[in-house]
Amino acid sequence: MVSIVYISWHEKYSMQLFDIRPLNFLIKPLSCDRIEQVVRKYLKIAGLWSKDFTYKIGHEIHKVQIKDIVYLESAKRKLILHLADGKKEEFYGTLKEVYGEQLQRFDFLFVHASYVVNYDYIATLKYDELVLPTNVILPISQHRRKEVGQAYFSIMERRRAL
Questions:
Q1: For strand 24-27 and strand 5-8, is the pairing parallel, antiparallel, or unpaired?
Q2: Eight-state DSSP code of residue 95
Q3: What's the confidence (pLDDT) of residue 136?
Q4: What strands, in cross-sheet order, belong to the sheet with 129-131?
Q5: Alpha-carbon Rg of the chain, whole angstroms?
Q6: pLDDT means per 10 residues in the chain (162 residues)?
Q7: Short-list 56, 2, 6, CA closest to 27
Q8: In the sheet where 115-118 sits, what is the strand order?
Q9: CA proximity to 138, closest of 160, 118, 159, 158
Q10: Contact 89, 53 (CB under 8 A)
Q11: DSSP result, 28-93
């Protein structure tokens, strides 16, 4: 599947492209956020944007929908997957790998060495902790506070633009 995105300084050309049906028409100057939105849109349309989280328990591969993950917790060498329905799943792995390979692109925040949280389930963001709708309180590590705050507000702004 091929999609075309036109980029120009002149908005007047956008109407001439209607018959061609481009994926999008971007006006210069471009922002990284706007380019990212277009790429995400393409991946979703092309079916390349998986909405499932996969993990392995023993020799079995399991999957859950990304939207159902509230947060992941690291306890020693195991990860505990906390789901919206209250269920928990345990499997071996590291938060860094899971976050980088599957969750970061879906607006999860790496708030602590032991926690990765789904933005959609954050009820309150405080300076040193966040509160989930279930009144679970998770700490934000000191060295991640600035990064978490910036990422949180960046996600909020990007979603407002959609």
A1: parallel
A2: H
A3: 96
A4: 124-125, 129-131, 137-139
A5: 19
A6: 78 74 84 84 67 91 94 95 96 94 91 97 96 96 96 88 60
A7: 6
A8: 88-92, 78-83, 69-75, 115-118, 108-112
A9: 118
A10: no
A11: SSP-HHHHHHHHHHHHHHTT-S--EEEEEETTEEEEEEGGGEEEEEEETTEEEEEETTS-EEEEE-
> Under a CB-based contact definition with an 8 Å cutoff, are residues 146 and 157 in contact?
no
pLDDT at 83: 97
Per the CB < 8 A criterion, the answer to whether 107 and 117 are in contact is no
Q: Residue 42, class by beta-carbon neighbours within 10 Å (0-12 exposed, 13-18 middle, 19+ buried)?
A: middle
Cα-based torsion angle of the residue sequence 97, 105, 85, 92 in order, rounded to the nearest 10 degrees: -10
Give the per-residue pLDDT at 97.
94
pLDDT for the residue numbered 112: 97
Task: Name the residue among 17, 9, 18, 83 with its Cα closest to residue 53.
Answer: 83
Domains of the chain: 5-45 (no CATH), 52-161 (2.40.50.1020)
